[in-house]
Known about the structure:
The chain is α+β, with helices and mostly antiparallel strands. 13% of the residues lie in helices and 33% in strands. The chain has two helices and 16 strands.
Amino acid sequence: MMFYLHKYSVLILFIIAILTTSCYAIEEFAPVSGFARSFILGTELSDATITVLETGLKIKTDNHGRFGPFLYPVGKPITLIFEKWGYKTTQSGTQLVPRNGLTGPHNNITFQVPSLETYYLLATIMGVNFDKDSCHVATTIMAYGKTMDDDEQGEPDAKVTLTPNMNETPFYFDIFQAGPLKGKTNPFTKGLIQTTKDGGVAFYNLPPRDEPYTLSAEKNGVAFTQAQFICRKDVFINISPPRGPMALQ
């Protein structure tokens, strides 16, 4: 009887030790930073509000459009929202924060934000009628190692799919080959069926859902990372470089 009682007591102490360790485990944090620029011209967007969707934390961009670094729990999802008067409120993609954080030119969170005039002009050019009960997403399918500072960021000849499939046809953006806008996004070409060197692609009027959508790219002989986003009613998401699907080396 004494043997079994002793054995039982040891088991209880072991369970208590595990629970105590779990309760007092130190949560790990990593830095997150990025910047915001205007779409097409690349103007640095200062004094804009960046909100963390998951926590409500609000910070401001500095005189060069930069924000952070701020600390965020490792392994937790993060989604940022950009707000500034005269510009379209824009949401980032959603990703889990790794141990090394989301900082530096190849791993930070960036915003490419259209002015309100540009946003609705592009919709007119592309023939899009926005449904306010839906979300709209744009991203860049990137060549390996590219950032927003590179010209011709895109990986050409890739096709983009959305999971779950909503039977929406993607709009692929062309790139200006000459003139003052050489190397910039060209929204005038319609009917493209794969990416150009611009890499831009958009899906419009997607139904909101609690779980994230996943964007995937396909090209013979090339593997890509994936990107995810949360679709909320009447929200515009732009997963700009370097967070869009990227070709792997």
